[in-house]
Amino acid sequence: MRKTLTTMLTKGLVATTGLGLAVAAPIAAASSAQALPAIMIYKVQYDSPGSDTGSDTSLNAEYVVIKNTTRSNRVLTGWTLRDKTGYTYRFPTFTLKAGASVTVHTGRGSATSTHRYYNKSWYVWNNTGDTAYLKNASGTTVDTCTWKGAGTTKYC
Fold this sequence. Notes:
Elements: H1 2-10, E1 14-16, E2 22-24, E3 39-45, H2 56-60, E4 63-68, E5 74-75, E6 80-82, E7 88-90, E8 95-96, E9 101-105, E10 115-117, E11 129-135, E12 141-148, E13 153-155
């Protein structure tokens, strides 16, 4: 027992209590959850409610929410959001505040710190399945979100 306890102590596998008792610690730690990306695609509303009329109201009800999961502001200038076909929204000079989200709508509107617009006259996201790609200014894919089949919304 002493040799085993000594081996476990030298390998950091034993913790001591304040009473001089040795307690074996677990050899493997529980697997940690995968960390969220700093900037991520949080939600895609790929099928706007009602009929696809092509109006700005209908187009803007199709959108992607991008979230900053960090405690610091992140510059998204030059970042892109695109679909499989290649319809691309490029962020102009833009900073996403710490912990904040920005919604990128398909239609037209006035850009703010929380709402941006593709300025498209027809829908970007396919209701039957598609993939949203978020790439940084260097063109590296930061996050993706894929959906197939029925539904209207995908939380990523």
